[in-house]
Amino acid sequence: MGVSPQSKASSWQFPSLVLLALSAQMVSMAASFAQDEAGARRREVAAMLVAYFEAMCQPKPFVPRVGEDFKAHQRSLREKLLACAGLSPLPERVPLELHESEPLDHEWCTVRRVAYQLWPQVFSTGLLYMPKQFAERPAPAVLCPHGHWQNGNAHPDVQARCLVLAKL
Questions:
Q1: Are strands 99-100 and 104-105 parallel, antiparallel or unpaired?
Q2: 146, 152 Cβ separation under 8 angstroms
Q3: Which end of the chain has the least Cβ crowding within 10 Å, N or C?
């Protein structure tokens, strides 16, 4: 008695179909589980953002620090800032070795290109805007970084800002 080709085909088709159906069901369940997890995470993040926003919207009293309290707070902030910048302890000071260009004359100030030493053999460059009314003595200064965009410190907005600050 031989086995007909039809019965051979049916003997492997049924288990294969069952296996395929189970696999599809498992993939579907895994996808819905992942969606539920992602949805739960999104809801959790949204709730955290709402709570943060509400906390930030609460009025906070301004209590100015004065006297020794201010000085202690200032020291604490300075220490934290230096530590975050990797400058604690501060490196040894080096001579500035200032290099200056010829001045460009403006109505109320002169502008010079300068280069000064930060660390041994490491220089930083910038433009020094010196008000004419303070040319003979030490004067207040404003450090005004120009950023790294097209034209840098040659950008008209940057030059206008620096000229106005020099006039103040």
A1: unpaired
A2: yes
A3: N
Q: Phi and psi (nearest 5°) for 141?
A: -135, 155
Distance (Å, whole) CA 106 – CA 128: 13
Alpha helices in the chain (DSSP H): 5-57, 67-84, 156-167
Closest CA to 162 of 134, 142, 140: 142
- Beta-strand pair 109-119/104-105: antiparallel
pLDDT tens-place string over residues 137-166: 777 777 777 777 788 888 888 888 888 888
Instruction: Report the candidate in 91, 129, 131 with the shortest Cα–Cα distance to residue 113.
Output: 129
Q: What is the pTM of this model?
A: 0.48
Domain boundaries, the chain: 99-167
Q: Are 103 and 110 in contact (CB under 8 A)?
A: yes
